[in-house]
Structure formats: structure tokens, C-alpha cells
Amino acid sequence: MAEHAKLSPSAADRWMSCPGSVYLIDVKNITSKGGEAANRGTAIHTLSEKALKGNVACAGFLGTKLENIKITQEMVDIAQVYVDYVSALSGDKFYEQRVTVAELISDCWGTSDAIVCEVGKLTVGDLKSGSGFRVEATDNKQLLIYALGAYFKYDWLYDFKEITMVIIQPPLDNISTWTITRDELMLFKEQLLEARRRIDEHKDLFVITPKGCQWCPAKFACPEHRHTANQAAQVDFKTKAPDDLSYWLEKLPILKGFISSVEETAYEKLVAGAVIDGFALGKAAKRRAWADEDEVCNFVDSIGLTKTFFKDVLISPAQVDKLTLNLSVREQLNKFITFTESKQPIVKKDSAKSDFK
Ligand code: SF4
Questions:
Q1: What is the pTM of this model?
Q2: Eight-class DSSP state of 227
Q3: What pLDDT, on the 0 to 100 scale, is given for residue 58?
Q4: So what's the pLDDT on residue 356?
Q5: Which residue, judged by its Cα, is nearest atom 7 of ligand 1?
Q6: Is residue 280 part of a domain?
Q7: Among 199, 207, 211, 222, which residue has the most ligand 1 atoms within 8 Å of its CB, making it the best to mutate?
């Protein structure tokens, strides 16, 4: 099993804002789950590292198994974007380096995907292979910790003045960069020390923040979330005036997060064999899927049934947008498009205004 830091850089948004979470996670012995997406991410990282270190194309690993996962074309494409980006940087390059800020906070270390050093300039690159959320480099605490760790490790050799942090997130075509000075990095060092002090002195302080709570594995047991849920349970929403509803719409993310966390935690515990009073796992619905589509294609080809197994389907208007077509064809196609509108979402007034613009 992979080793994890208690104060991991990837969870810094949580533990830097909410000291109580550190103790809650400890007391409840909560471990963050890996899951399929995380395993896939690890395989893509391994693929990129091998390509960079071996100076070879990612395509050479197509169909092979890395970290027990078969490398697909999509994974190759993601890794290659990152490899191309890092390869184009000039400087001394260090891949998958363990970096630590343990001299400020014990048990805070991580593995930085790419550290690129030149005299006066440090670049820290981080590959994000997921498409669920767009990750920005600006104010990214995980990258700041990697940058600080890299600074401690290599500054004696390169005398860094400027530090650039880069997120490379190929599935969303996102290359996000943020450059700061050495003084600004030292300011972050002070913030880390302040976070350490809060963790030492405020074990009972729970602070809800969108970024900090988003991935908090202790949400189901969080006193602040429980308090809000208890409050909500006592309200008769049908009799609420619009102003009260506005209060509760603000609280929706907290309530939704709490409910999901209770469900997910209960599920994991039941799967692990725990007993939960009055509840058990029901029967799972089974869906069939090809384990390996390439192998199926080869098989049906070998028995002459390729045509039977493939059918032509009309592409969608969204897929048409990606085609290179002349304007007149596009205009003619527009006549065939109809629109259905989904239910209007409730949005905050500011975003409603910008939508209108
Ligand atoms: S969910 Fe609760 S414990 Fe976790 S970070 Fe948010 S406030 Fe802190």
C-alpha cells in the first residue's frame, strides 16, 4: 500500500483551514480511499515518468500494463501532452521527486511530478489526469508546498528568485501557470507555520470552506456539518418565506456534502463487513460490458462477423461542431436542429447576471 503523509500537500486546503479535521480523521481512523480513478491516475503518472526518463513516446506503452492497469489510447494521449510540455522546458529536470517541508511541519511531504531547475528559476509541474474539476495553479496550496519543498532541496545550487507552478490537465485542455517571487514563497512558508500553530492549539476548531470541505473524508462525522443538518431537519420548508429559503439555498452545498458523505461512508463500511443497525447491502444490478474491446474486435474479425458487430450511428450536433465543414453546409444543417430546454437551475444572483450578459 502506498505510504501517505498525514498532512498531505493534496489535502492542504483542508488542514490549513480546518485544524479540527486533522484530529477527527485521526480519532475516527479514517483513511482516504483510492478508487478506480486514482489507480488510473497513478498508471498515467507512471507512464509519463517512464516516457520522460527513457526519452521515448508514450505510444510505445499502448496496450501494456502499468500499475496493473492496461494502458489505453486515451491514457497515452493524456500522458503525451504532459511529457511534451515538460520536455520543452529548459533546465535540470527531476521527476517524481519526494519533497518535504518537514522542517516546518512534520508529516508533510509529497511526490512532485516534475521539478525543473535553472539558475534563478524554479518550475514545478503537476499532471492532473481527471476531468471532473478544473484545477488552477494560482493559489494552489499543493503546488506551493511542492515548490517550497523543491526550494529547500535545490536552492543552494540554483539560487531561485522566481518560482513558476504549472498544472497540466490534458482532459480539459487546461495548462494553468502561476509565477511568484521568492519573497512570496516565503510568505506562504509563514502561512504554513500559522497552520501548524492552529493545528497544535485548536483541536476543536472546525471551519467550513468550499475548497477545504470538498474532499474531506470526515464530513459524515463533522460537527459543523451535523449541526447544519440538524438545523435543517427542524425546518418546515413549505412555510418558509423567500428570505429564509435564501438562507437555506446558501447551505445546500453543506447539506448535500453531508448526505453524500453519510451514504458513501455507510456503503464502504457495509462492504467491509461492518454492521449498521437496521441497514444492509441490497442486491446489486449487473450490467454487462466487454472486458477488452480490442480483443472482441480481433475475435469477431477472425470469425468474419465484423460487420454484424458494428453499426453506423448518426453523430450528434455537438459532434458535428468538431468537423471541418464549409459555412453553407453548417447553415443547412442548422435547419435540422431542435432545442429542448432542461429545467432552469437556481443560481446565485451574480452568476445569473453574468449568464444574462
Ligand atoms: S467537513 Fe468539517 S471537518 Fe472536514 S474540513 Fe470541513 S469543516 Fe473541517
A1: 0.81
A2: H
A3: 96
A4: 46
A5: 208
A6: no
A7: 222
141 and 259 fall within a common domain? no
DSSP notation for 114-178? EEEEETTEEEEEEE----SS---STT-HHHHHHHHHHHHHHHHHH---EEEEEEEEGGGTEEEEE
Low-confidence ranges of the chain (pLDDT < 50): 1, 356-357
* 257 pocket-lining for ligand 1 (C-beta < 6 Å): no
- Angle value at C-alpha 197, between 193 and 198, nearest 5 degrees: 115
Q: What local confidence, expressed as pLDDT, does residue 235 receive?
A: 82
Tell which of 201, 234, 262 closes a domain.
201
Nearest to 154 by CA among 128, 185, 130, 129: 185
What H or E segment, with its residue span, contains residue 307?
helix 306-309
Give the Cα-Cα-Cα angle 127, 6, 253 (nearest 5 degrees).
Answer: 70
Substitution site in 7, 15, 215, 219 for ligand 1 pocket (most atoms within 8 Å of beta carbon): 219
93 touches 49 (CB < 8 A):
no
The verdict on the CB of residue 217 being under 6 Å from ligand 1 is no
Total count of residues recorded for the chain = 357
> Which residue(s) pair with 112 in the sheet?
97
Look up cell 483510492; give the residue. 34
**What is the C-alpha to C-alpha distance for residues 160 and 118, in angstroms, rounded to an integer?**
8
- The pLDDT score that the predictor gives to residue 242 is 62
Q: What pLDDT digit, counting tens, does each position of 181-231 carry?
A: 999 999 999 999 999 999 999 999 999 999 999 999 999 999 999 999 998
In a domain, 4, yes or no: no
